[in-house]
Amino acid sequence: MNRVLTLTKTLLRDWVRNREAVFFALLFPLLLLIIFSTVFAGGPTEFEVGVQNNDVTSMGEPTELSATLITAIEETPALEPHTVDSDTDLEGIENVEEATGHKRVVVIPDGFDARVRSSSARVRMAVIEDTVNRFQGDISPGQQQDIQDALGGFETEGDASPVSVVLLTVPDDEAAGAVGSIVDSVIARFNDRSIGIEDPTVSKVTEQRGQQALGAADYFLPAFIVAMILINGLMTVPSAVAQFKRDGTLKRLAVSPLRKHEWVIANVIQQSILAVLLSLIMVGVAWALFGVTAIPGPVAIGLVVIGAIGFSSLGMIVGALIQTPGSAISLGGAIALPLMFISGIFWELDLMPATLQTVAAYSPVTHFHRSLREVMILDSTAGVWTTAVLLLVLAFVFFAGAVFLTNWQSFES
Known about the structure:
Elements: H1 2-17, H2 19-39, E1 47-53, H3 64-74, E2 79-83, H4 96-100, E3 104-108, H5 112-134, H6 141-152, E4 166-169, H7 176-194, H8 216-246, H9 249-254, H10 260-290, H11 298-321, H12 325-342, H13 354-361, H14 364-376, H15 384-405
Parallel strand pairs: 1-2, 1-3
Antiparallel strand pairs: 3-4
C-alpha cells in the first residue's frame, strides 16, 4: 500500500507540472462551460425583420389599415421590426439581404387598405347570410326577404379578393420558419379584427406543470464534469503512460518491487482524486459566474469517482496498446470525442436525429451525465443507482483489462 501511495503522489506532481494535461483536463472544460453557459443562457428571443409598406397615401403617409398591421408587428415581442424604404424595389431582386440588409422582409403591397376593407365587407356579408340561414326558423319570411334585399343591394367597392402580404427570406435563414409562423399569427389576429372579432371564440391558455426548466449552466455543469473525466481518462492517461514507456520510466518500474496491478491502481487513484478536485473547482466557477447552487453530495462524488475509475482504466488499456504519446492522444480522442458528441454533452438529445438518439441511449456517458445532473441539480436519485451499477461493471471490466494488458516485459528502453 505504501508503494501505491508513494507512486500516486509522484503521479499527481507529474500531472501538475504537465501544462498540456492541466489545460485539457481543467482549463478546456472550464472554457467550454463558460462559453456554452453564456451563449445558451436563454432570455427573450427577438427575430429581426424588415417591413416595407407600399400602401401609402398621396401625401406619403401610411394608410390606416397598413399602419394598423405594422403596429401589430411592432407589438409582437418576438419580432424586432425595421423599416425598409418603400422606394427600394423588391419586385425583381435576387437577394433580399443584399438589397435591404435584412434576411427577412415583410412586404405590404400597394392597395392593401382598400382591398382589406372590400374583402372584410364580403366576409361580413357571408357571415350574415350564414346566420340568417341557421336561424331562418326563428325569422319570419318577410324579415328574411328584407335581409336578403338589403344584402343584395350592397355592393363592395374595388377588388374584394384576399390580399397577400409577402414574407421575403434568404435560402440559408434557419429562423425563416419560426418568423413565418409568428407573422402568420399576427396576420390571423389582424384578420379577426378586420371583420369585427375582438374576442375570439377559442383562445389558448398556457400553464406550466412539471419539472422546472434547467438553465444553461445547470445543464452544462454536470455535462462538462463528465467531459473533464473523459478527457483526463482517455487522453491524458494514455499519453502519460506512453511517455513513461518512451523515457524508460516503466522499464525501471518493472524491475522494482512494484507490481503491475499496483501501477494501475496508483493511476486510478490519481485520476479519482483529480476528478473530485476538478469537479469542485468547476462547481465553484459555475456558482460564482452563473449562480448555480449545485452542491456535490456523497452520491454525486461517488458517481464522479466510479466514472473516473472506469474511464482512467480504459485509458490505461489504450496506453498499454500504444507506444507513442501522440498516437495515444489520437486514439484516446477518437474514443472520447464521439462519446461526448453522441451522448448529449454539448446539446440535448432531442435535437439529434432519431438514429443517433437510439445510439445515445446505449452510451454509458449519456447515463453518466444525466444521473449526475439528477443528483446535483435536481436533487433526485431517479435512475442514478442503475447508472452507478453500470459504471461499476464497466470500471471492473476496464480495470481488469488494464491489469491484463499491462506487460512489464514489453516496455522498451
